[in-house]
Amino acid sequence: MQDYRNQTTAQNSTENTCITENSLHNNEYQIQSLKLAQQTTSEGFSHKEMSELTSYTIKTIRSKASKGESIAANDGFTYRYDKDPHILKWIRV
Asked: Model confidence over 25-57: pLDDT tens digits?
């Protein structure tokens, strides 16, 4: 009976470790995205920063900017490209 308890405990700790590692990875990604968003929200994002915040390539992001299309980022916000010569950044809508 004690051997079974030890096996169950070992399996649970392995599962918990995997879940914890996945949770930490996801949390780190979310924290990085939030930090990036907070740093540049007031001034906007460059095309490169938008590619890091989305799954789009820089080419696609540039194309969407030139067409005036908006982009939904992984942080849950939507951004549009401001073509004002003084700004020229992706701005949160």
From this structure: 667 766 666 665 555 445 799 999 999 999 999
For residue 22, give both structure tokens. 């996945």
Give the predicted TM-score (pTM) of the model. Answer: 0.56
68 DSSP 8-state letter: T
3 sits in which H/E element: helix 2-40
Q: For 49-64, how does the pLDDT look when each residue is reduced to its tens digit (9 = 90+)?
A: 999 999 999 999 999 9
CA distance 43 to 71: 17
Alpha-carbon distance 47 to 56, whole Å?
Answer: 10
